[in-house]
Structures are given as C-alpha cells and as structure tokens.
Amino acid sequence: MNTLTKRQQKDKQAIIDNLKHLPIVEVACSKAGIARATYYRWRKTDEAFTKVADDAISDGVSYINDLAESKLLSEINGGNLSAVLYWLNHRHNAYSNKVEITTAAKQNDKLTPDQQKAVKKALSFTGLIEQEKGK
Q1: For the chain, where are the E strands, in sequence order?
Q2: Which own/partner pairs from 39-47 qualify as long-range (CB within 8 Å, at least 24 positions apart)?
Q3: pTM over 0.85
Q4: What are the helix (H) ranges across the chain?
Q5: Which of 12, 44, 98, 110 has its CA 20 to 30 A from that of 72?
Q6: Residue 119: CB partners within 8 Å, gap ≥ 6?
Q7: CA separation (Å) from 91 to 34, 86, 87, 109?
Q8: What's the gap between Cα 127 and its chain centre?
Q9: Domain coordinates of the chain in residue numbers?
Q10: Contact predicate 43/50, CB 8 Å
Q11: Ordered mean pLDDT values, 10 residues apiece, the chain (135 residues)
C-alpha cells in the first residue's frame, strides 16, 4: 500500500468517525480537513466507503436523537411545561393531534349516481381519470 492510499484510508476513517458523532457531511469533512467534493468523489468511486459512510450517518442520527431525547427528559424533570406538552403530543395517543373521520355508511354500500358523479368530478381534478382511461 503506497503512502497516498494510506493517507486516503486515514482521511476516510476520520470522516467516518466524525459522522458517527455529528451526521453532517460538511462538519465531518471540515473536522477531518477534507473537502466535501472529495467526500462525494469517494462515495462515487468507492462502494465500500459509501456503505460505511451511510452506516456512520445512521449511527450519528441515532446518537443525536438519543441526546435530544435526553435533553427533553431533563426539561420535563425540570418542570418545563412546553417540554411536557411536546412529549405528550408526540408520544401519548390520548394527547396527540389527530383527525378522526367516522361515518354511518357501510363499507359495502354502493355509491348513488350523484355520488359517483361527484367522485368522477373530484378525480378529474387530480388527473386520475385520464390515467385510468389510458390503462
């Protein structure tokens, strides 16, 4: 292995290590002293590097998510009402924002001619009617 290849492997590893802690390509490259263009060139030419980099970014995202959740829980423990509400809205079904649609119609009810006409008119705005005709 020549000197250039050794240095390149070392630089690639530095970027991978950075991505595992902060999954932002610009920051990882900057910390490693490598241009973003070089990173993307390596991704195009080195399939193994691309896979390892993608895995590192995934690990980094998980790390940041854990960190953010930890901070949120600290805020909840500290009595921050906004944090409490955020948690409940996003993690507890009884408090989440949701839209519920109910109907008395049975699933096997057929549409009336007026309902069929209204559905066709609505679908004509989406272009789905033309797609069905082309099939």
Answers
A1: none
A2: 39/15, 42/12, 46/12
A3: no
A4: 3-21, 25-32, 36-45, 47-77, 81-91, 113-126, 128-134
A5: 98
A6: 111
A7: 40, 8, 6, 36
A8: 29
A9: 3-69
A10: yes
A11: 90 97 96 96 96 97 94 94 90 77 71 86 73 47
